Amino acid sequence: MTTSRTVLVTGGNRGIGYAIAERMIADGHRVAVTARSGEGPAGSLTVRADMTDAATIDAAFTEIEAELGAVEVVVANAGITKDTLLLRMSEEEFTSVIDTNLTGAFRVVKRAAKGLLKGRFGRVILISSVVGLYGSPGQINYASSKAALVGFARSLTRELGARNITANVIAPGFIETDMTASLPEAQQQQYLDSIPAARFGRVAEIAGAASFLAGDDAAYISGAVIPVDGGLGMGH
């Protein structure tokens, strides 16, 4: 039986974030999600926040703290892509992805840190991607932002590890979401051919890894990268 905690999932209105929020609710946690639009799953508290704007993140935390108590588990999931090859990529296309995916995680974790330290408990779970360590053409901005989360989690582990706070990374592979469904059939097949499991992952499988990392059994795991990718990124 896992202790009930206050959990925040950023970008919890669809896809992986929504599935993680659903699973955390099923596990008996008090769950809030941030979203720019839309709503989190039934039983969650949805708050508005923009990952590029620290003031909106601060306001979201204040609302969550008033409703559910101090945040104890942070799942930094919100992310964007602006895919294009390096020679065509504008500086704005690079920096905007970094600002949301990496600096956004920094803003959220920094705002949560005081509460984690005060409560002498914390689980920080950063949602990265197999692409972060494996690489992907057309995704220099996205891959850079996702690779950086590994250094973030490991540095955070060294800073806060003695205070019963863990920081880990989940690296999903190709997962069945609206984003993969919209890919051309030939491209989907090409991806499938490279995955040892010979199928795309399910959002519930990412949620299962997050559930484990948030739970009591994962207290001695920190600074780890947990691949949930059907074997695609082995050795990376």
What is the CATH level 1 assignment? Alpha Beta
State the order of secondary-structure elements, H for helix, E for strand.
EHEEHEHEHHEHHHE
Largest sheet: 7 strands, parallel
- Shape designation: globular
State which percent range the strand residues make up.
15-25%
Q: Would you tell me which CATH topology applies?
A: Rossmann fold
Straight-line N-to-C gap: 33 Å
Please give the number of β-strands. Answer: 7
Compute the number of structural domains: 1
Q: Name the CATH superfamily assignment.
A: NAD(P)-binding Rossmann-like Domain
Please state the structural category. alpha/beta
Instruction: Count every helix, treating DSSP H or I runs of 4 or more residues as helices.
Output: 8
- Which blocks of ≥5 consecutive residues have pLDDT under 50? none
CATH architecture classification: 3-Layer(aba) Sandwich
Task: List its salient traits.
single chain; 8 helices; SDR; oxidoreductase; 7-stranded parallel beta sheet; 236 residues; 3-oxoacyl-[acyl-carrier-protein] reductase (NADPH) activity; Rossmann fold; globular; 7 strands; 3-oxoacyl-ACP reductase FabG
Explain how this protein is built.
Strands 3-2-1-4-5-6-7 form a seven-stranded parallel beta sheet, sandwiched between helices. The chain has one domain (6-228): Rossmann fold, CATH 3.40.50. The chain is built from eight helices and seven strands; from the N terminus they run E-H-E-E-H-E-H-E-H-H-E-H-H-H-E. The protein is of the alpha/beta class and 236 residues long. The longest helix has 29 residues, at 91-119. Keywords: Oxidoreductase. Its EC number is 1.1.1.100. This is 3-oxoacyl-ACP reductase FabG. One of its GO terms (molecular function) is 3-oxoacyl-[acyl-carrier-protein] reductase (NADPH) activity.
